[in-house]
Amino acid sequence: MSTQPVMNTYSRFSVAFDHGEGCWLFDTDGNKYLDALSGIAVCGLGHAHPAVTTAISEQASQLIHTSNLYTIPLQEQLAQRLTQISGMDSVFFGNSGAEANEAAIKLARRYGHQKGIDLPVTIVMDGSFHGRTMATLSATGNRAVQAGFEPLVSGFVRAPYNDVEAIRTIASNNPNVVAILVEPVQGEGGVVIPADDYLNQLRDICDQNEWLLMLDEVQTGNGRTGSYFAYQQNNILPDVVTTAKGLGNGVPIGACLARGKAAEVLSPGTHGSTYGGNPLCCAAALAVVDTISNEKLDQRAKQLGDTITNGFRDQIGDASYVKEIRNKGLMIAIELSEAGSELAVLSKVKGVLLNITGGGKVVRMLPPLIMSDSEAELLVNTVSRIIKVYMADE
Ligand SMILES: *Cc1c(COP(=O)(O)O)cnc(C)c1O
Q1: Is residue 240 exposed (0-12), middle (13-18) or buried (19+ Cβ within 10 Å)?
Q2: How many whole angstroms from 131 Cα to the centroid of ligand 1?
Q3: Domain made up of 17-48+296-393: CATH architecture
Q4: Under CATH, what is the fold of the domain 63-294?
């Protein structure tokens, strides 16, 4: 029998890390790696950031958990900071991106019921990723995530991403729609960046139909795309925003933010989470939010992302095997004309961590927001060289 004690849900690299510092991870053999993935957009402040470390250790020595049966001042403080930054009115805290989206999906359904729609429908997009729980995988636009888990949760209709006309068609045909759930940039889908005014158009359609505009900023939030939340570059306000990943810098926390009528939908007894927003996670997240704001790391993400992307364009932009190089802040993609699944392994051997998405053709980088100019240069030079050698050899 080859059954492993950890259930076999990931095909993992054999490397194990035992500590990290800034943009660097060190494995158990003492090798170091430039982390251009940040634990999948989680460690935006890099590893062992002093503000986060201090917040966690001080809070851990004082109080970790009390439950939501009692007032949690740190949760209120964090909600206050997040609503200030986002323009939303109130926040529900959970422990992950999927949970944040579950809250949004439930909120939309209840909003529908309050409007007298018994079987409310949420519009979701092809190529999207919203999580691995039953409702969020049903909302996800990737058959590989759903296959084998039928029956799926009903109440979703799907439209192509970045296609406003398709949404208008659904609007005129389906009276049960109550909300749109959409990522400002599709992360797991391969760093797919829609038209600049896509969210503005969706906002208009939602206003015309009294739908909720719900943005999944689990990956795009917390400074990654060049503003605290990506929608802030569109000068709109959604009705619901979810975030997680970068919010805790590795401490599990997710948030569902809501505004106006959407903020009034959930009431005592309608939703909950035992751990959600406990003192430890909120202390960590407060340190993260304050560091991003005080150091304007969102602006740094924009500048650094553009510099890295232009560096790649200079070095490999004209190569026949490069289809497109694109970014929104520090969500960076090199789309190849053919699959390059081996590139994650090769770059790990050369000491750089990144990953491959988009059907094996998209080299994705999500570097920490604190990356220095010289580390960025090292990233561009190393990854360009690896792609050149690998793709030219094929
Ligand atoms: C990662 C991700 C999720 C799921 O987050 P988990 O914390 O893994 O549950 C949801 N939506 C988007 C856009 C993501 O990138």
Answers
A1: buried
A2: 5
A3: Alpha-Beta Complex (3.90)
A4: Aspartate Aminotransferase; domain 2 (3.40.640)
Name the residue of 99, 130, 136, 364 to mutate for ligand 1: max ligand atoms within 8 A of Cβ. 130
The C-alpha atoms of residue 225 and residue 227 are separated, in whole angstroms, by: 6
- Quote the pLDDT of residue 215: 99
The predicted structure's pLDDT at residue 1: 56
**What pTM was estimated for this model as a whole?**
0.97
140 lines ligand 1 (CB under 6 A): no
- The atom of ligand 1 lying closest to the CA of 244 is 7
Q: How far is the CA of 130 from the centre of ligand 1 (A)?
A: 5
Is the shortest distance between the CB of 95 and ligand 1 below 6 Å? no
Strands (E), the chain: 17-21, 24-27, 32-35, 90-94, 121-125, 156-159, 177-182, 212-216, 240-243, 254-258, 322-328, 331-336, 352-353, 355-357, 362-365
Q: What residue segments make up the domains of the chain, in order of their start?
A: 17-48+296-393, 63-294
Task: Report mean pLDDT in 10-residue bins for the chain, 394 residues.
Answer: 85 93 97 97 98 98 97 98 98 98 98 98 98 98 97 98 98 97 97 98 98 98 98 98 98 98 96 96 98 98 98 97 97 94 90 92 97 98 95 70
If one residue of 42, 218, 247, 330 were mutated to test the ligand 1 pocket, choosing by the most ligand atoms within 8 A of its CB, it would be 218
**Cα dihedral 163→164→169→171 (10° resolution):** 130
- Look-up of token digits 């969210």: 199
Are domains 17-48+296-393 and 63-294 of this chain identical in fold? no
Q: Which atom, in ligand 1's list, is nearest to the CA of 133? A: 9
pLDDT at 39: 96
What was the pLDDT predicted at 341? 80
Atom of ligand 1 nearest to the CA of 254: 7
The CB of 219 under 6 Å from ligand 1? The reply is yes
CB contact at 8 A, 283 and 248: no
Protein residue closest via CA to atom 15 of ligand 1: 219
Q: Parallel, antiparallel, or unpaired: how do β-strands 240-243 and 352-353 relate? A: unpaired
Phi then psi dihedrals of residue 315, to 5 deg: -85, -40
pLDDT at site 394:
53
What is the bridge-based pairing of β-strands 240-243 and 254-258?
antiparallel
* Cβ 181 under 6 angstroms from ligand 1: no
